[in-house]
Amino acid sequence: MLSMSTSPPSEVTIEGQFYSGNDSSRRGAVLRSAAGVIIVDAGDTRLRLAHDDMTISPRIGNTPRYLHLPDDGVFETEDNAAVDQLSRQSRRGRGNRLLHALENHLGLILVAVVVTIATTGAAFVWGVPWAAQAVANALPDSIAEQVGDSTLTTLDSTWLEPSSLSEERQQALQAHFEPFLTPVAGKDLRVIFRSSPAIGANAMALPDGTMIFTDDLVNLAEDDNELTAILAHEIGHVAHNHGMKGMVQSSLTFWLIVMMTGDLSAFSDATVVVPAVMMSLSYSRDMEREADAYALKAMTDHDLDPTHFVTIMERLMAAHGEDHSPEAEEGTSRWDSLRDMLSSHPETGERIERFKQTP
């Protein structure tokens, strides 16, 4: 607003607005500094201060500067050049001047951007999974039981319905599964059956060791050993504590994004959500591979032919309209690859090949 007067070089004169701190009114004022003394003249108010009595706000571009005075007084001005000159008279201003210089150094800005991106990526790729695993393992079994019970209650009130399988059929399957239902990771295992037109042929493991088989999956199998192969996979999820780890990971991913953006509403922004969702899905693919590895070993230990897993997976693919033939794979487009990347499971063909290669 104002310019420097024709005073000696050591003297600074700045025009601005003065707020007394007693009310919200503002008055035009002039601040003068000379010989280590600062005078603020706001008409009926005149302050005589030392440099140590005043705090100068950092320079951020060309935004107004605020000089904080005793008794909550504030002097506001847009004359950044004059404020910079004033700050040079104060030893306390050196830090702000250094910060301003760093903020305007293009090379350092680019380095900071690269470091920030690398740190953020490392946090999502390695930090969140490691922290989620540590937290999940530290949680008492009672938490897993509570989560399992509440999840089952929610599913039963939304997507799941009572099973239409006969009591005899359910008991026969329970007897067939019995050799695999020994406790793992300190959790007792149990299998329950539900009908779910919304979910279709599927199975899922809850954090407390409860495993749900849908009627459609049971009816899809042509051999009960195929269902046992699926059971071994679901037990793998329980053994690796994937239920609790997945829950913790989702929470950590969400709150990490909130901390980065500083706003819960930012989570609705697609540019923020999509990378987080893709990362969470990647975690799920890793979990599926661990569960597959567990299932393969369990089937081998129980002398159960791994091809049972292959046949039920191929039948599931056909039921879901997927094609794993060589001709179909050759014609896979980039959009199909993107769809697989967004899938929560590894490519089904990849999983089948792993079981086929087992002697």
From TrEMBL:
GO terms for molecular function: metal ion binding; metalloendopeptidase activity. Pfam families: DUF7092 (PF23368), Peptidase_M48 (PF01435). Residues 169-356 form the Peptidase M48 domain. Residues 320-359 are annotated as: Disordered. Binds 1 zinc ion per subunit. GO terms for biological process: proteolysis involved in protein catabolic process. Gene3D superfamilies: Metalloproteases ('zincins'), catalytic domain. Keywords: Hydrolase, Membrane, Metal-binding, Metalloprotease, Protease, Transmembrane, Transmembrane helix, Zinc. GO terms for cellular component: membrane. The keyword Membrane applies. Residues 320-339, 347-359 have a biased composition (Basic and acidic residues). Residues 13-89 form the DUF7092 domain. InterPro entries: DUF7092 (IPR055518), Mito/Outer_Membr_Metalloprot (IPR051156), Peptidase_M48 (IPR001915). The chain crosses the membrane at residues 106-132. Its cofactor is Zn(2+). Belongs to the peptidase M48 family. This is Putative Zn-dependent protease.
